[in-house]
Amino acid sequence: MQEDNFEELVNNVTITFVTMNNRKFEEASYFFKKALPQFKLVQKQIDVVDIKGSIEQITSHKLGKINQSDVSLPFFVEESGLTIPCLGNNFPGPYIKSYLVTNRPEEIWRRCVELTKSDNPPAIATSCIYLCTSNPLVNNYEIKRDKVVGAYKFIDHVDGIITRPVNFSASNSLNSIDTFFKPNTITQPLSELDLDHHLYYSHRGKSLNQLSQMLKFLYPHIVN
Predict the structure, then answer these.
(1) Structural domains of the chain in order of their starting residue, each with its CATH number
(2) Which of 5, 33, 80, 102 is in Cβ range 3.0-4.6 Å of 127 for a Cys bridge?
(3) What is the CA radius of gyration of the chain?
(4) pLDDT 10s digits, 26-69
(5) Residue range 193-222, pLDDT digits in tens
């Protein structure tokens, strides 16, 4: 029994995704099962009050508020947002979730069409991940002037357009950009894709892919 436990410890690493968003965790869990089956992904819900700032600043703030005694290493946090240029500089960005509380996807699309005089108003979806790892080279972190010292950052974005929700009645209940954001590389919004294609084309899928490459580098004995 002891030998079996040692073998499991050597060949598996548990990594924690600190998030209050169950849908994000489901996406990440699916990604890990496909790309990193040697890693066991678990969720830790820690509610951190957001600050005003960029996606990177908000993500680093979350990391800085997490007490390492409450979460086992390695762990990561993620923040995402949607920039719609016609609504203002970097707006709504990381505040898209609260923006959707008072603005339905259909209303956002109509407003953007009016402002741009185009049926395809441009938008940019961004995802930022910070990883704190048990690797001894970076096993401590601190926040200095909104920059995280001792942690890895992964950020990626997807260019696309705001599109009219395919299923307007259903989209009203979804607090997500997936119902009305369409990457330029595909012909339908993210909500219409199965999870494999969603992760391939989405902003979060791209930042998770960067994270997976770093984990493979940091833990070669696990993935090789």
Answers:
(1) 2-223 (3.90.950.10)
(2) 80
(3) 19
(4) 999 999 999 999 999 999 999 888 888 899 999 988 888 887 67
(5) 999 999 999 999 999 999 999 999 888 877
